[in-house]
Design a protein that fits this description.
9 helices; 26% strand; seven-stranded mixed sheet; single chain; alpha/beta
């Protein structure tokens, strides 16, 4: 099967007749008819129903035509990006990840991608959920690893990567460490420590208050290290998302499951990228990252 035959079929459908399609493709009308017949013979399927000077697509033809548009779009992007890589043009893949994510999968995916495509530059941004969402929406970033806080949108590719379980990190000297699990009511008199910049604080406070159900006081730290120092000195606790079975060895800080009515609190982590900014390199990174999870 030749891509040229697919191109002829698309031209016929778009032009509405064989004559204009042949003119558009710079071939004779008989040549384009012969190529469509060869395509049907190779598939063993009738794609077009001829009606004198007009035609209609069969159900199989309608399906093949629509799918062929996807193939054509992907092929055009592949050719463009391949030429750009060969020419060593300066292409930067702009990645972002949610600041609350603490796993290794993202860095491992970047390592593998860089080994496979050494000529591609990578820029990395961390931020709050909303910061990343706005960067992606405004085309200032290509791909983000983020937690899911809103319904999926049809404008984006929404790739579910994994599900996290929420734990509480708290000083090992705190009496609450004697409990096998912690509920929001158990923590209402203990400040909640969140990692967030000044501009992100209100967003994170609202999320953990209204969605997660932590209604006490909030303390903010600029970095994860700063947050852990606050935990060690008994200033509060920190909710963390843990993906998979993550070993924990810190003797100064304990991790205790955070539950709601006795059930673990889960959160989905996803890869997001805009459909109108999709391309081979972005999709390749998405596949690599998916494999890391």
């Amino acid at each position: 099967m030749l891509f040229k035959q697919i191109e002829y079929l698309q031209a016929i459908v778009e032009c509405g007749n064989f004559y204009e399609a042949a003119d558009k493709c710079h071939v004779s009308q008989s040549a384009i008819s012969q190529q469509i017949k060869k395509l049907e013979d190779e598939l063993g399927v009738q794609l077009l129903m001829r009606h004198n000077r007009t035609f209609s697509l069969t159900d199989a033809g309608e399906h093949f035509y629509k799918k062929s548009l996807v193939i054509r779009s992907d092929m055009e992007r592949l050719i463009k990006e391949t030429k750009r890589i060969d020419a060593k043009e300066n292409f930067t893949l702009r990645l972002g990840y949610y600041r609350g994510y603490q796993g290794n999968e993202f860095s491992e995916a970047i390592t593998l991608f860089s080994e496979k495509y050494p000529t591609i530059d990578i820029s990395i941004t961390s931020g709050s959920h909303e910061d990343l969402y706005h960067l992606l929406r405004d085309d200032e970033i290509d791909f983000i690893l983020n937690d899911q806080r809103r319904a999926f949108s049809g404008e984006y590719h929404n790739l579910i990567l994994s599900e996290s379980t929420t734990y509480v990190e708290i000083s090992s000297r705190n009496p609450l460490c004697s409990l096998e699990r912690l509920e929001a009511d158990d923590l209402k008199n203990t400040p909640c420590i969140l990692v967030a910049s000044d501009s992100q604080q209100n967003e994170e406070r609202v999320y953990y208050d209204e969605i997660v159900g932590l209604h006490g006081d909030f303390i903010f730290a600029e970095t994860l290290q700063d947050a852990r120092l606050k935990i060690i000195t008994g200033q509060g606790f920190m909710p963390v998302d843990v993906i998979g079975e993550e070993a924990w060895f810190d003797t100064a800080v304990s991790r205790i499951p955070f539950t709601r009515d006795g059930e673990p609190i889960k959160k989905s982590y996803c890869g997001f990228w805009k459909k109108d900014n999709s391309g081979f390199l972005i999709e390749e990174f998405a596949e690599i990252l998916k494999g890391m999870f």
